[in-house]
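Recall from the previous lesson that a structure prediction takes nothing but the amino acid sequence as input. Here we apply that procedure to 3-oxoadipate enol-lactonase from Desulfomarina profundi. The sequence below is the only information supplied.
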Amino acid sequence: MTETISIENRDGTQTSARIAGNVGSQAIVLLHGIGADHRMWDPQIQVLSQNGYYVLAPDLLGHGKTSKVSELNLENWEDQLLELLFYAGVSKCILVGVSMGGVIAQSFAMNYPEKIHKLILADTFGELKTCREKVLGFLQITAYSILKVSGHKILAKGMELTYKAPFAHMAKEYFCQMSLTADFEQLILARKAINKIKAIGKIDGDQISTLVLVGHQSGKSFVEINRKIADAITGSRFVILKNSMDPSNLVNETDFNREVLQFLQNPT
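The prediction returns the following tokens.
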């Protein structure tokens, strides 16, 4: 069974989410990247549900068909996830986050470790501490501010160039389409919110089994940013995916799915 649901949250916002699989099975929550929506997870939703998982893929606040917001911070997304889990009757889930979704997943893991069975992070960051990291975060905000003036077609062209590699055709098609309706005000709010993450060394790997994935084609510095996350989580598994880049679940779905399923099926 696959369907789209709408949840009225206690703060007055509304969450749109895609669900698949059987209620009562092990729940897995999928958190998308910035400027995306639940459809970013199309290569995983059916695969995971067919492997016996109850899949919950929300549009995060400020994205997709979920409510737009006037202000946004990591706690707002955490509250949204708590509402989703309560609605679904889930006390503990597997949490998967890619890019922005990975930042939110880390924040949730820091503050609600009792809600997480296993944690999977991909193509993300756990802090903006070094000069290079801070510049990366600042430039993203600046880019969205410029795009408010230059327009959606410029963003779409940028996505076409970013995902020009043959192995990234699915991501290129998806993000070029998403670019044409991007809400730059919401993207600026989202980017400012995730820039505040300070998760390095604050996730208990003894309590939460963790997998960290990163695409090799994202570049050496970004690979090391993800390695830093893994190194700070006791017992975590770190995997570099070839022919992949942010978001790896959409760029190299075959290897991403294989690594995720192997990790989930490992009893430890």
